Amino acid sequence: MDSDQRRKWKRVNNSGGKIALKLILSFRSLTLGITSFLFILFYFYGSDRSPFRPVLRASGFTRVFPNLLTDDYFRGGGKPLPLVIESRVLLPDHLLLVLSNRVQRGESFECVYYPQLGDAADVLDEMLVKLAISADDYQESKSIVRCELPPVNFSAAADLRRTGGEVVEGNWMRSADSVPDWGKVVYEAILDSNTVVVLAKGLNLKPHRDVNPAEFRCHFSLSHFNKQDSFIFTTEATAAAQEVVRCLLPRSIRNNNTELAEGIRVTVSRVATASPALPSVAKVYNPKSHGMREEGEAKYELCACTMLWNQAAVLKEWVMYHSWLGVERWFIYDNNSDDGLQDVADELNSLNHNVTRHVWPWVKAQEAGFSHCALRAKYECNWVGFFDVDEFFYLPRQHRGSQTQLPGQNSLRALVSNYTDSPTIAEVRTMCHSFGPSGLTAPPKQGVTVGYTCRVQAPERHKSFVRPDLLDVTLLNIVHHFKLREGYRTTNVAETTAVINHYKYQVWDTFKAKFFRRVSTYVTNWQDDQNKGSKDRAPGLGTEAVEPPDWRLRFCEVWDTGLKDFVLDTFADGATGLLPWERSSSSASSSAR
């Protein structure tokens, strides 16, 4: 590296870094030793026959020492002490750091990179610092920080410090191989009864079908699996499909309290190959302990789940409109947005909409994310719909003799709840109509439901509400629908009863984002020269985001103002004409007049 390049990087204080290394590594070693001992003690003496049953929720440091890893604990004299990095993942376009504790919103961080080779003194001299891309909450008690990819000849085992502060921990002794690559890693694990559902990249399973679970095993440990002294328990898989492997919990936990599994590390291996288990950054997450419903409290009848990226501008319209139709609970999976989505969620909650933003940092993992969401919804909802923020349910006027009946408030909930007590139906499907730019060249100010009024004539595909407690154990899904448990089936809603207005082909500045971000695992990115005839692409477009001259006139075969007319008649303010999503949180009301 030449002198000009070096001057562009900040250097970390040599002596202070060495002292911080020794103190923090000693603390980590001590706490890891204690938690490992307690976990082993629980495992061997936790059976029904043992007179000794320690009360322990084994979830690493945070359960054994609940105050040691909180941001408040680390504040001494007004100065925050180092945070704890529990995992790193090398994603395609950035390096992800997972922290064991929460950071304050708006805090600024710097990522610290180490040369791949050299002794301790050389490394401390050559550490390089760059401002982090962003930081965010993760799960209920953790945080993530996104760093730029490591420079050439620098390790991916980067560290972190608050801007201008001290380094979290020194990892110059770690090799770059200790940081898993996104193509082969276990990234999430979620508790479901006496099993754990593990989400992993690198299984290389065929899409849209399940496989023999006997091919896989799960392994559990308190420490990183690459440590020689890690204590590992192995269990059998009971189901497998796509990026999902479901395994039994260790026997002693099944025999006592399955919630004790929260926080334990887990990974997956293949039985028939000699290859080692996949690298893992996943710890078991218990959705039941973090839900919005208390034990024994009635479930919400109708919920919705979506995954989005930088669509905060349309979230208010989507939530407010469907809340009026009867959706009671919202699971918003945020796939690395940077457009203020949390602020919009906070505003919606101030208006009594029940919105939870769940940070989903994993790229090209929509199907697995929906499996994750289905398990979360299972404990809170009778029905959960999986549809996008550019898709709006529309219940047309019903003509009965000489009478015309408009859909009323909560009419979507009433439609779906008709099947709640059905002994066979576990999925309700609704067809989609795809709308085009409708002659517009700028995003409609009153929202998509009012602005886009011309569509393709034939319906395309469908979206579904499902019973999350009646899904197949594989959680196999194709985004639009899930595989159901044996003995249950789907029902299709007639287009005269309900349809979905899919505002798929919007004005070019909005639409072109699809070229750069496709969240589905099995949908080819539009820049890739593959599957050009797929329905997931826009007809007539190539692999580059170049606006066709006639874009504003495309996909316009039928003028359809049904939903526009309904929205203006039902939601517009009588005095100002404003719709609820056009007004600020101080003046908006989620109820229509």
UniProtKB/TrEMBL annotation:
GO CC annotations, alphabetized: cytoplasm; membrane
EC number, UniProt record: 2.4.1.-
**Catalytic EC class:** transferase
User: Where does this protein reside within or beyond the cell?
Assistant: Membrane
Protein keywords? Glycosyltransferase, Membrane, Transferase, Transmembrane, Transmembrane helix
Pfam (any one): Glyco_transf_92
The GO terms describing molecular function are: glycosyltransferase activity
Q: What is its main location?
A: membrane
Please identify the protein, giving its name as recorded.
Glycosyltransferase family 92 protein
Taxonomy-wise, where does this protein's organism fall, top ranks first? Eukaryota, Viridiplantae, Streptophyta, Embryophyta, Tracheophyta
